[in-house]
Amino acid sequence: MNVLILGGDGYLGWPTAMSFSQIGHEVTVVDNFSKRKIELENGIEPLLPIATLHKRIDTWNKNQNNKINIEIGSLMNHRFIYGICERYKPEVIIHYAEQPSAPYSMKGREEAVYTQENNIVGNMNLLFAIKSFCPDA
To answer: CB neighbours of 74 closer than 8 A, spacing ≥ 6?
Structure first.
């Protein structure tokens, strides 16, 4: 099965990618690293250090037969997500790529607008991409 995981750098996305890959599915992860950017801009560090997605994928792909693909980009860019759906033709799309942080979105107007645009426009672009390029998803 061809699986597309949106938000593949996250605490849910990465374990999901490893799980599907380990049982033999073709997996592609997508991320725009917005959470890492927000953490960097606000001086926030995770409790435990987390390797970059590229390092985790390199390590996985060196040690596993079933490789994980990576695509970097944002759901807010409709051409990007249309291209991903057209290129990979996923049968399953797992969507973890929303900005979940209520404290971040309440920090100020700019943060609130970014959160809404990311979540609403991103979902709208994904919906149209699925309808156009992924009829089996």
So the answer is: 32, 34, 80, 118, 122
The answer to whether the CB of 73 falls within 8 A of the CB of 32 is yes
Q: Tens digit of pLDDT for each residue in 98-133? A: 987 778 888 899 999 999 998 999 999 999 999 888
Which residues, 6 or more positions from 32, have their beta carbon under 8 angstroms from its beta carbon? 72, 73, 74, 75, 97
CA distances from 60 to 34, 97, 113, 126 (A): 23, 21, 36, 27
Measure the CA–CA gap between 83 and 81, rounded to whole angstroms: 5
For residue 76, what is the DSSP state? T
Q: CA angle, corner 110, sides to 102 and 114, nearest 5?
A: 65
Phi first, then psi: give them for residue 46, nearest 5 degrees: -65, 155
Confidence of residue 3 (pLDDT cuts 50, 70, 90): very high
pTM tops 0.90, yes or no: yes
Rounded Cα distance, 50 and 13, in Å: 13
